[in-house]
Design brief:
The complex is a heterotrimer. Chain A has 15 helices and 17 strands. By secondary structure, chain A is α/β, with parallel strands linked by helices. Chain A folds into three domains: 26-356, NADH-ubiquinone oxidoreductase 51kDa subunit (Rossmann fold, 3-Layer(aba) Sandwich); 364-482, no CATH class; 486-518. By secondary structure, chain B is mainly α. In chain B, α2 (40-62) packs across α4 (75-86). The chains are: A alpha/beta, B mainly alpha, C mainly alpha. At the A-B interface, α5, β15, β16, α11 and α12 of A face α1 of B. Bound molecules: iron/sulfur cluster (2 copies).
Chain lengths: 557, 344, 185
């Protein structure tokens, strides 16, 4: 028996999982349209590579990863691109973001897929590239591009942790996935282990999911997986947090801002392992995921739903009950209320809860903090939430940072137990985004100061050079007037004629250079490559405009 | 919707419930009090409660805060009860009223109300009374059976509200100094400790009657611990320090220093350990801080009791340690997840 | 009695001397203070404070010749920071100086005649271009100072406020104020 470690605190909210895990995963019906955001992952937004009106096949890439940290986006079914525009997305702000609207043709026809019978024949770089191109990102909610996490620097990783804990109430998508597709999850885990050069694979599942544990255990045996262990961990929220699960299984505490890989561990969600396997083995990009639909519906159920399915169409299949006030994406502890019911399912959407006043009654008014430290007792990061609250509320951000605000994982355990009903996490979110904004502002100000100072010094230098030049000219003029001139010339009577010639040429060149400099674009000395790229872009646009103008004039006569 | 942000669920626990449980935990002590000293204490509890609620409502009104959620939080009631239990029950009605009014208005609301007061309001009320009206604060009821003339309930009422005792009865005949006070005075008079403890007012461990009241509070405290409404740190550190210091002195000089159990079961020690020091608002939040805080209070209580000018040190020890709370908190911030030195 | 007075007087003198010495010894040197003030200023370099840039304004504040409420881009928060830094009272913006939403300059490329006047006006070299060629604002470098707007002979520069998007969106301060008026609703 493996010794398990404990993390501090934690809470035991009612799990509410049995509503949705009694029936097998169902295939969601094809929706009337798909709303696919281009920014579903951590990193830079994907760039659209299709045009409005274009016909696309299922699995065809419609967004190309842009930059180092990014991921591809694919058409979830076959159909026609109806729009590429700003739409409301599954984000708490309710601010529109770039989305591709796809009208399905009903055929659900796959593009030709690049399958691979034996991934061991592929190079690691190739595997990572395939994952990136398949849009595989962390499905536990963090949506971090998986290719970036599957890299082992100096082969230091010992343990690969597979996260099947699923500690949030209501959510059962990982539970069902493990029950039904355990074999494929483990295949994915094997592949991840190879990519990370990890020795052992530990699969942590909370002990309130005995069926999933049994399924995974028998799959380990059936697949003859070595050094792979399915471990039942105690049910306590937030035991499924990556840091908490790593702690429970290995005893290692990964501090905020530290990469777990530096401590010899890497952690993936079971759903991610499954998708990674499908992407490599069958060439299937991430076009669907398992979504739990529960809450105020008559038939709570897990669906295999296409990315981009409007949430209301998905919930309707479970029979939405009257009194639904909105949709929560994720669980009741860390989920976010959707700004609209029509937003598309994204890769991060593990669960949609139709909320009602009965399920989630209005919060009672918040009273002042009575310093009872119930919050500190349950905080898994061992913070002092009441102090953080105090500082965040007073907008004393430096102090909040001193008290480790950025170690807060926003699990909500503190708000859950607070007898004064203080929306603690909300204060931390506010303080964090305020600090980030401030840091960005500070950076911008520093850059501006630098550029300003550089400009001042340049103007200064130019002025100095000008006056020097003037002075030199004057001196020369004066010298020309004095009778000494011949003497100077005489002092060098047999000067090499070639030398004088050279001198003349040199001055001519200098003059030409100066003239050239005069029309050289200004302010291009200190450009970063990015700015250079921007300028190049602009130049290209100008060239095009000129071209167009020429065309126009050509066409006129 | 419950706000618009996660977590969307909360544990059904509220400030008023917590306070209510603390009030409930006081009841065994109060019952024993009534048993030994008659129902006068119930009068002062009622007076204090009414005053507290009225003043609380008034202060909230002035500050334009909503009445209902704050009045229902039971915190004012708790302050009132703690104060009423700390002062002599047989005292003019205005004494407890003035004390409670001061506690709620000045030491709670002037500092920002619930959650913001640095000092324990009940102890501030007590301190104000003992400084302003020392004579009224020393006349404690004589326990049942010891009094020369037992006072009936109407007699007690009559004294509290009209300042009149039955004909021919002097105040001294129905009241006495506390066992702690008596001990101190007698030691000053160079009476042998052995002889002092022979006096009829002393029972098994401490004062007759009062030792049982303290036991009642101990029971209530155990209930609070079992319900996890308070953490063990404060009572353990307080009682531990009080025990160790008094034990040391007792060992060194048994003829002048009473045994530790005497200290535990006299005065406000039990009430303080479980109900006063544990007030979350005015005590540190970190576990280590709680230990330091309560140990300091235990030491100070002992020193004031043995060498200071006041009969009991609980109130002043609490207030002195209250001052240090921000400092203690700042010093004892625990290491957070992942930032500890040793890793397996 | 007399001796007590003497002791007190002596104590007072000694303490006074120590304080005076400390004031001389630990006086904030001129330059670090200017730098500290400059670090608080937003570096927009717009001159709206009446000085030719943030640094000169910082100098003036350090010398005590300028008020702390003259910098609109810094906003009230900027004033608050200056007040904290200098141990002064917060002072609200007076009269016409009001903070505006942060903006960037945008050059209308169809109107620009390539005169370079805006390039010369830009305090942070955030406009690229050459004579007789279109000019462009390098958006990330633009501080929104508006100094390039007036010199343009064809009025082709406009200030566009930066809009909130998903990346720069911030969580709002929780408003669960508990006031009597709210309860009445
Ligand atoms: S749980 Fe709430 S009331 Fe208690 S200390 Fe934490 S923030 Fe304060
Ligand atoms: S939300 Fe943050 S402060 Fe609150 S319990 Fe979780 S980690 Fe701790």
């Amino acid at each position: 028996m493996r010794t398990l470690y404990k993390f501090h605190g934690g809470v035991h909210p009612p799990t509410n999982k049995t509503q949705s895990n009694l029936t097998p995963i169902a295939q969601a019906a094809l929706p009337s349209k798909l709303l696919i955001p281009l920014h579903q992952h951590v990193g830079s937004s994907a760039k659209p590579v299709v045009e409005v009106g274009e016909y696309v096949l299922k699995g065809q890439r419609i967004g190309r990863p842009e930059g180092h940290l990014s991921s591809a986006v694919h058409a979830s079914t076959s159909g026609t691109i109806a729009a590429i525009d700003m739409q409301r997305v599954a984000h708490p702000s309710g601010i529109p973001d770039l989305c591709i609207t796809l009208i399905p043709d009903g055929l659900d026809e796959w593009i030709a897929l690049d399958t691979c019978d034996d991934w061991t024949t592929l190079s690691h770089t190739d595997l990572r590239h395939r994952l990136r191109e398949a849009g595989v990102v962390g499905l536990g909610g963090a949506v971090f591009p998986s290719d970036m996490k599957l890299y082992s620097h100096k082969h230091k990783i010992k343990t690969l942790v597979l996260n099947g804990a699923e500690c949030e109430p209501y959510i059962t998508c990982d539970d069902m996935l493990m029950r039904e597709r355990a074999g494929e999850i483990l295949q994915g885990a094997e592949m991840m282990r190879a990519l990370l050069y990890a020795e052992e694979v530990l699969i942590g599942i909370e002990d309130n999911k005995p069926e999933a544990i049994a399924a995974m255990k028998s799959a380990v045996v059936a697949g003859n997986h070595q050094r792979m262990e399915v471990i039942a961990v105690p049910t306590v929220y937030p035991g499924g947090g990556a840091k908490q699960l790593i702690r429970v299984l290995t005893g290692i505490e990964v501090a905020a801002g530290v990469r777990s890989t530096n401590m010899g561990v890497q952690c993936f969600n079971v759903g991610t392992a499954y998708s990674a396997w499908r992407a490599i083995r069958f060439g299937e990009p991430l076009v669907s995921r398992i979504v739990t639909v529960t809450g105020n519906v008559s038939r709570p159920q897990n669906y295999d739903a296409l990315i981009g399915t409007p949430m209301d169409e998905l919930v309707a299949q479970s029979g939405q009950l009257p009194g639904t006030t909105g949709y929560i994406m994720g669980g009741p502890m860390m989920g976010v209320l959707m700004p609209s019911r029509q937003v598309g399912v994204i890769k991060a959407a593990n669960c949609i809860i139709a909320s009602s006043d009965k399920l989630f009654p209005t919060a009672k008014p918040a009273l002042p903090c009575i310093r009872c430290t119930r919050c500190a007792d349950v905080c898994p990061s061992e913070l002092q939430p009441q102090e953080l609250y105090w500082f965040s509320k007073a907008k004393n951000f430096d102090k909040a940072e001193d008290y480790h605000l950025f170690d807060c994982i926003e699990c909500g355990a503190c708000s859950y137990v607070c007898p004064s009903n203080i929306p603690l996490v909300q204060y931390y979110r506010f303080a964090k985004s305020e600090i980030w904004a401030r840091e960005a502002g500070k950076k911008a100000a520093d850059a501006a100061r630098e550029r300003h100072e550089y400009r001042e010094s340049r103007i200064e230098r130019e002025k100095r050079e000008k006056t020097e030049k003037l002075a030199a000219k004057e001196k020369a003029a004066q010298a020309a007037k004095t009778p000494l001139q011949p003497v100077v010339a005489a002092a060098n009577p047999d000067a090499d004629p070639e030398n004088t010639m050279q001198l003349k040429i040199q001055t001519a060149i200098d003059r030409a250079k100066e003239q050239a400099a005069a029309i050289k674009p200004k302010n291009v000395e200190q450009l970063t490559p990015q700015q250079q790229a921007e300028i190049n872009d602009i130049e290209a646009r100008r060239a095009r405009i000129r071209e167009l103008a020429k065309d126009n004039t050509d066409a006129q006569p | 919707m419950s706000g618009f942000f996660s977590p969307f669920i909360t544990k059904p626990v509220s400030v008023s419930q917590i306070m209510l449980h603390v009030l409930l935990a006081l009841i065994p002590g109060i019952a024993i009090y009534v048993w030994f000293y008659g129902p006068a204490i119930l009068i002062s509890l009622t007076l204090a409660s009414i005053t507290a609620l009225v003043i609380e409502a008034l202060m909230l009104k002035i500050q334009n805060k909503p009445l209902a959620p704050y009045l229902k939080d039971n915190s004012a009631l708790l302050t009132a009860w703690l104060l009423a239990l700390s002062i002599p029950p047989l005292a003019p009605w205005w004494l407890v009223v003035v004390g409670t009014a001061f506690a709620i208005s000045i030491s709670k609301h002037l500092y920002g109300g619930l959650g913001n007061n640095p000092f324990n309001p009940a102890m501030i009320g007590y301190a104000v009374l003992i400084i302003s009206f020392p004579s009224h604060m020393t006349h404690w009821l004589t326990p049942h059976g010891l009094a020369e003339i037992p006072l009936s309930f109407p007699d007690q009422l009559n004294y509290i509200f009209h300042g009149m005792l039955p004909d021919g009865v002097r105040l001294d005949a129905v009241t006495m100094a506390t066992p702690l006070d008596t001990l101190k005075t007698q030691l000053h008079l160079n009476t042998q400790l052995k002889d002092i403890l022979e006096m009829p007012i002393y029972g098994r461990m401490a004062g007759i009657g009062s030792e049982w009241v303290a036991t009642g509070f101990l029971l209530g405290g155990i209930y609070l611990l079992a319900k996890r409404l308070i953490s063990w740190h404060i009572p353990a550190a307080f009682l531990g320090t009080l025990f160790i210091t008094s034990g040391l002195f007792h060992l060194l000089d048994p003829s002048h220093h009473v045994a530790p159990l005497f200290h535990w079961f006299s005065g406000a020690a039990m009430l303080g350990a479980f109900f006063i020091l544990t007030d979350p608002v005015t005590s540190p939040t970190t576990p280590r801080g709680k230990l330091i805080f309560a140990a300091g209070a235990g030491l100070l209580t002992y020193l004031i009791r043995s060498f200071g000018g006041f009969p009991d040190g609980m109130a002043f020890a609490t207030l002195l340690m209250n001052i240090c709370v921000p400092l203690i908190d700042a010093w004892t911030q625990p290491k957070v997840f992942g930032k500890k030195e040793k890793q397996p | 009695m007399f001796s007590a007075l003497l002791v007190m007087a002596a104590l007072a003198i000694v303490l006074g001397a120590v304080l005076g010495f400390a004031a001389i010894k630990f006086r904030v040197e001129g330059n670090p203070l200017v730098d500290k003030i400059d670090a608080v200023l937003p570096q927009t370099q717009c001159g709206q404070c009446g000085f030719p840039g943030c640094k000169p304004y910082a100098n003036a504040i350090a010398e005590g010749t300028a008020d702390i409420n003259l910098c609109p881009p810094g906003g009230e928060e900027g004033i608050q920071k200056l007040a904290n830094l200098l141990g002064m009272e917060f002072k609200p913006f007076g009269g016409a100086t009001v903070p505006k939403p942060k903006s960037v300059a945008v050059i209308d490329e169809s109107t620009c005649i390539g005169c370079t006047l805006c390039i010369q006006a830009c305090p942070v070299d955030a406009i690229a271009g050459a004579a007789k060629q279109l000019h462009t604002v390098i958006v990330p470098e633009c501080t929104g100072c508006e100094l390039c707007v007036p010199p343009c002979p064809v009025d082709c520069i406009s200030m566009i406020p930066i809009e909130e998007n998903i990346t720069n969106w911030k969580w709002k301060y929780p408003v669960y104020a508990l006031t009597a008026s709210k309860q009445a609703q």
